[in-house]
């Protein structure tokens, strides 16, 4: 059951794609740290991030519209009829892959490398973005409605870092997907 629920996050497990780890993890962390450093200014209080009309409320207001867009993009990619969309991706001479657990006829489990196609990559990307958007929206509403959580400074800082990281991960991954759809898919 958890396998299916967590499957949108398998996008993060794609291996062999040049620069993908930088876009998935490193750049969002850098942007998050820069944003948090701004909140260290003496005239700023980190709790202001969660206040009405604060930065995180504005992020969530922006993100609320994205799941519909991501689901529409996912549906379009899944049904897109174009030559080459079902061919493996080539990244610097390598074919990106995901590790897949399977069961042989004799019942023994094994792991195999499944080469991903352009269609599979884009479906995984937009599934991931949709799930991240839902997590950000639901997490914000839970945190914001639980006063005992947002009254603790350590929890507030942890939640701020988490929200800001997920936000930048959504933005960077969206731009990566747009780059891929607008440029790489045609090569």
Question: What features would you describe in this structure?
Answer:
The protein contains 7 helices and 2 strands; from the N terminus they run ααααββααα. It has helices at 2-6, 20-39, 55-63, 66-79, 118-145, 147-150, 153-182; strands spanning 97-103, 109-115. A two-stranded antiparallel sheet has the order 1-2. Strand 1 and strand 2 (109-115) form a beta hairpin. Helix 3 (55-63) crosses helix 5 (118-145) and helix 4 (66-79) packs antiparallel against helix 5.
Sum up the structure in keywords.
about 190 residues, mainly alpha, two-stranded antiparallel sheet, 7 helices
Outline of the structure:
The chain has about 190 residues and is mostly helical. Helix content is about 60%, strand content about 5%.
Categorize the overall geometry.
elongated
What percent of residues are in strands? 5-15%
Radius of gyration (CA) equals 19 Å
Strand order of the largest sheet: 1-2
Could you give the order of the helices and strands?
HHHHEEHHH
Q: By helix and strand content, what is the structural category?
A: mainly alpha
Largest sheet: 2 strands, antiparallel
Mean pLDDT: 86
Number of strands: 2
The termini sit apart by: 38 Å
């Amino acid at each position: 059951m958890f396998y299916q629920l967590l499957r949108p996050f398998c996008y993060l497990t794609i291996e062999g794609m040049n620069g993908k780890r930088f876009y998935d993890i490193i750049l969002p962390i850098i942007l998050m740290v820069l944003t948090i450093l701004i909140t260290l200014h003496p005239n700023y209080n980190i709790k202001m991030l969660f206040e009405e009309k604060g930065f995180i409320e504005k992020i969530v207001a922006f993100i609320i519209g994205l799941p519909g867009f991501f689901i529409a993009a996912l549906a379009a990619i899944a049904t897109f009829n174009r030559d080459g969309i079902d061919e493996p991706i080539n990244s610097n001479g390598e074919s990106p892959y995901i590790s897949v657990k399977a069961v042989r006829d004799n019942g023994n489990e094994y792991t195999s490398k499944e080469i991903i196609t352009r269609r599979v990559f884009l479906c995984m990307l937009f599934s991931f973005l949709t799930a991240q958007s839902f997590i950000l929206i639901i997490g914000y509403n839970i945190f914001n409605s639980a006063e005992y959580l947002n009254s603790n400074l350590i929890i507030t800082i942890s939640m701020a870092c988490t929200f800001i990281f997920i936000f930048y991960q959504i933005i960077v991954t969206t731009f990566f997907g747009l780059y891929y759809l607008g440029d790489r898919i045609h090569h």
